[in-house]
Amino acid sequence: MDTESQRWRWWALGLAAGLLFTIPQLFAQGPAQKQTPIKWGGDTDGGFPYVFADPKDPEKVIGFEMDLAQALEQEIGRPIVFEQRTYESLLADLERGDIDVAMNGLEIIPERLKRVAFTRPYYIYQLQLVVRADESRFKNLEEAKAKGMTIGTLGATAAERLLQDQNVSLKTYDDQQGPYEDLRQGALDGVLMDLPIAIYYAAPDKQLKYSQLKPGLKFLGPAFAEGYYGIAVRQDDKDLLDRLNRGIDNLLKNGNLKKILQKWELWTPDQYRLYETVEIVAGGEDMHFADYFPLLLKGAGVTVLITLASFALAVAIGLVIALLRMYGPAPLRWLAVCYVEFFRGIPVLLLLYFIYYGLPALVPGLKLNPFLAAVLGFGLNYAAYEAEIYRAGISSIPRGQWEAAASLGMSSPMTFRRIILPQAIRVILPPMTSDLVALFKDTSVVSIIAVVELSKQYQILTKSGGGYLQIGLTTAALYLTMSVPLGYLSRYLELRWGVKH
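The structure corresponding to this sequence follows.
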């Protein structure tokens, strides 16, 4: 027993001595070994081949920039953690400090250099024009411009800037897939985007593992208009910028960057010029009120047209649905209920996607103008809400009104038109006005189908180098200018028609 106790005593002393020796070492070495992760912002939504969700494992992010980030981790000795952000907000998130770097096929252009710093380039891109396989009306961008063709591209990119500078008719999109789908269906005459994107969507001669190839498309002419991709860093974060620059230098020297680009079929002879010293400086003049106000005013005009046309359609459909639900035969009443519940239960964003992209796929040969698709989507959606407002307003009129009109020999349609509806309008006017104001603001979602209304124009201008504050205040003022008078008009009509509060 004494021997056993002695053994445990020596074991305890040895453990204590070990802890006394190792714990100080852990505290001494811990801070040196522990590295704060670098938060990298990017957008996986349609990010081929940059960063995107692995089709086999949607929780895993892959792409050539993910491979680049992992290689840079080894070079700079700090972990790089991906954070999902929207492409449009990358620079704003970086400036606020929500992320440390932004890398998502960001083109190094003068407007961006006024806001953030960029590392040395890690890829030399070019622009590639894509058309339908049977296209014969033009052979290059100059001929497309001369013949008034419409070219689609991503917003706030070098391609958009080039099309604007050359006064080519263009349509901007928020995603990569939309323009190629519209081109295939005949809604566009061509698509101009960075070559890495075009390769994955329209290069039938390349057998790519993650190809998003749209059938019936082809490259038109060689790629042109060279530019650079870089990693965006805050202008005051010189230490991180230097680390990343050294990391990219090392990846160029040891050949790992070339291997990454070859893996994703992105290596071209032009990439050898990455070894050269590239100096890119900020340029361009600040945007002034006279530059952006006419564009915002044009966007406001589109917003007004969409709102009024959509609301007129909603009023007409909503009244029919309300009458069917109240006075129609049983089958029609059930259909009216289904209409209201269905369109109130689905997001208008989903409805716009279905009308613009889904219907042409279901009905071959159908081509919907984006403006028409927006009006139809909002009209169908808001008709469900208007129908309920009308039903409540009509039901509020006492039954005695119908009986009194019948005693005077008036038919039911005449009674409704001359007696019931005028009184119901006085009741439904305030909620109708509220819906109209809400529709003004909801039109901001139509940018997903390439309609450039007021809020989309705001995004374009701010991403093109305009100040968030001044352009944002101007945009808000335009929205108020459009919506506030509606409230005054509603109150005027309420007083004129004798609505009691």
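The radius of gyration is 31 Å.
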